[in-house]
Amino acid sequence: MITDFQSWASQRQAAIEQFLEARLPGADCVPVRLHQAMRYSVLGGGKRVRPLLAFAAGELSRADDERVTIVAAAVELIHAYSLVHDDMPCMDNDVLRRGKPTCHVEFDEATALLTGDSLQTLAFELLAERQLSDDAGTQLAMIKQLAGASGSRGMAGGQAFDLDNVGKTLSLPELEFMHIHKTGALIRAAVMLGAYCSDVLDTAQLETLDHFAKCVGLAFQVVDDVLDAEASTATLGKTAGKDAENNKPTYVSILGIREARALAGKLQHDADQALHEFGEAANRLRQVTDFIITRKF
Ligand code: GRG
What we know:
Layout: H1 5-23, H2 32-42, H3 49-60, H4 65-86, E1 96-97, E2 100-101, H5 103-106, H6 109-129, H7 136-150, H8 155-164, H9 172-196, H10 203-230, H11 233-236, H12 242-245, H13 251-255, H14 257-274, H15 283-294
Antiparallel strand pairs: 1-2
């Protein structure tokens, strides 16, 4: 087992890249433009935070690496689809993502729409095509969890709430509600799907892990808001300062930078507390959490 986090993360990021590269339709496969746009939007960029969480949870549950790679890839495809659609003129209207032109800028709007659609369905194809659990019922529950996390009661619902509230003042609980859905649901799914690839954790342990994932999901968003306010476009690889420019309610706009940072620290502490009962077996999850909190982009 690799103990050094940086080596472990690089190895897992490379594994996910290799898997996605092989599993995405080839750039010369008809319809060529759509497949090129899918590959453009997924490959060669991103921190792969959600796959790292799935791998770390898989390590906790001693799951088979091949199975975890598939669920990690599925979650990353949903994430990539959400970024492509979020960047479109009808939503955030952004031109830069992962240091390069957004999908609709590089290709066109119709292609970007179809790219997001196709990445989303490919994610579910992956979850259905191979055995991911020894129990078929568990595998169905995994598919259901990713669908729920992505849909109107998860990420898409959070996005709708976000769009409805541009320019409005939100209370802290309302902001939390939005982010638990928009960003948190997929992060929770990453952790839980990684863990579900084996059956060693009991129901109470899975609930504990879900609580951990909820804290991490919120912490991720708080840090994202701080970075949007403080980091440069060059460092982020996406347009910085968009939240303030678009008059969006964020943890920074409600709490200020200092309090927002303190909240991220508190959420990391809560996440760590949740892992207490797992002892050292959860060290990888602690390391990924630390990476999420201390990231610079
Ligand atoms: C369009 C259905 C639909 C949903 C969009 C997730 C989302 C909902 C929009 C993305 C907009 C955004 C910037 C959200 C803040 C949190 C977030 C998801 C940041 C980007 O994720 P990272 O930092 O990106 O993991 P990389 O590029 O590293 O993968």
